[in-house]
Amino acid sequence: MGCGSPEVHLSQPPKREIIRHPKPIYIDMLQNPTYQTPALQINFNKCISCQNCVDLCEFSILKTCDNSFPLVQETRNQKKQMRISLNTSDCISCGQCVIACPTQAISINQSILKLDKTKINIAILSPAVLIAVQEKFGEKFIFSHLITFLKQHNFELFFDASYGVDLVIKEEVNMVIAAKKAQKFIIGSQCSGVCQLIEKQFPQYLTNLSTVKNQYNALSSYIKHVYSQKMQMDPDKFFIVHFTPCLVEKEFKFRKDISKDVDLVISTVELLEFMDQNNFVNTKDINDQFTQNFNSISKFAKQFQVPGYYTELLARQIFSSYSESFDMSQINISSLQKYDRFNQSIKLLSFTSGNFFFTFVIANGAKAVLDVFQMIKNGKLSPDFVECLICNTGCCNGGGMPQKFSFIDIVHRSQQLMANTKLVKTNEDKNPDIEEFYQSSDVQIIKQNYIPYSD
């Protein structure tokens, strides 16, 4: 029976016009996803037409559609045929719809964590990943426990994604200062969802998008092209796996113009399932650490997944570039707009350094990001740098994180990330390895040029 979707079967053939059963009657049994991107998929067999995803999608990518699609359900009060359609051309794969779906009808397009034992398997771990693991196994769980577990499953080298922030921030500073002198502005590329959004829906801002790779991809390139040389290792034998809360990174994996040094992307949810499948036990007194020389990370880099901290680190580095001392009293922070919806916000951060007056914008949440772009377009906002985070409250609420339907629980994740930062060694001084990196021609490997997205 063709209804605009493959393999539609009737579980029973009721006459729709006389259905009187008060409970939903499901009449189709789709065995495979109807819509699919490299990051997410929709299976209508599980859809109950609650429209949570439609309500949450700020980009209007998810919409209800007419009877060109199979019926979701019929009740005494609802006889209208209704489906959810996904515009895969414009979808940025942020995954907020995955978090909103109560039945997992929209879910992560999972990758198989299958490693080649002949390779040197490398894990890049995001701070937000630890938060989700702590929720499941207790707050005493630390990265050492996770590293020990991954060692037992053929991983050999381990890197904190925060190191990638320290790696790119100096080049970001150079771009912002150069743009300031040219009377232009920069949109940060640390949120992959924003990069996708600009490519697909706001191509007029492509020339404003930072050409610095995000922390994950920059660190991957550094490992394959710099670290391998220092350690006299063959980079062709490296197999780099990102463990991340971000679903967009799963789509970027297929973008060789962006992620050519990444071999596999695993979401936090997939990691937790892998740990369950392999009977993870939280062992006490574990001393395994990140790979040597990659423990020296600035405090604000560790906090990059919380809105505003990447911008604060950028401001600190601008003061440093002009050999000026930094104090938070020199920074004026104001609220431009607040939203009742999911605590989204737009904040302004302004300061003077190097005889320049800088205005930075922090857009927290998809609606805030869209409004900032509209304000810039209408001439109501003239920033020098824009930090955009599609997922409200930052990466701790990324599409690859376990579902949390309470906003209080989501906020607690950010608070826990901040608490974790206080427990690890951070470095307020310049990292000599990164300083050496910037003196070499290798610095080109952390740069990229965005082009309009096409399938």
From TrEMBL:
The chain's coiled-coil residues are: none
Top-level taxon: Eukaryota
Cite the SUPFAM superfamilies for this sequence: 4Fe-4S ferredoxins (SSF54862), Fe-only hydrogenase (SSF53920)
Listed InterPro entries: 4Fe4S_Fe-S-bd, 4Fe4S_Fe_S_CS, Cytosolic_Fe-S_CAF, Fe_hydrogenase, Fe_hydrogenase_lsu_C
Name the Pfam families for this protein: Fe_hyd_lg_C, Fer4
Ranges for the 4Fe-4S ferredoxin-type domain? 38-67, 82-111
| Annotated PROSITE patterns | 4FE4S_FER_1, 4FE4S_FER_2
PANTHER family assigned to the protein according to its UniProt record, in alphabetical order = NITRATE, FORMATE, IRON DEHYDROGENASE (PTHR11615)
Similarity annotation: Belongs to the NARF family.
Name the chain's protein: FeFe-hydrogenase 7
Q: Which organism is it from?
A: Spironucleus salmonicida
